[in-house]
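Input/output pair, single chain:
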Amino acid sequence: MNKSYVGYTNDLKNRLNKHNMNKGAKSTKGHKWKIIYKKKFRTKSEAMSFEYFLKNNKTLRKKIINEKKDSNCSSL
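Output:
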């Protein structure tokens, strides 16, 4: 099973470390996470809007996961 997590942060490395040390959200505990997709935004508002969009778009999330199987971390 592929479990995915979508979130906003201004410190990606720190956020990933916290999740992998079980200090993240309840839904992230007990998993070893890796970055498969990242995207930079000019404003927090733009980032939060895209986070909401991606969280609610299961088709796009599955596409990103499947593309990861063929390559390394994607960035747009």
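The mean pLDDT is 86. Residues 12-75 form one domain.
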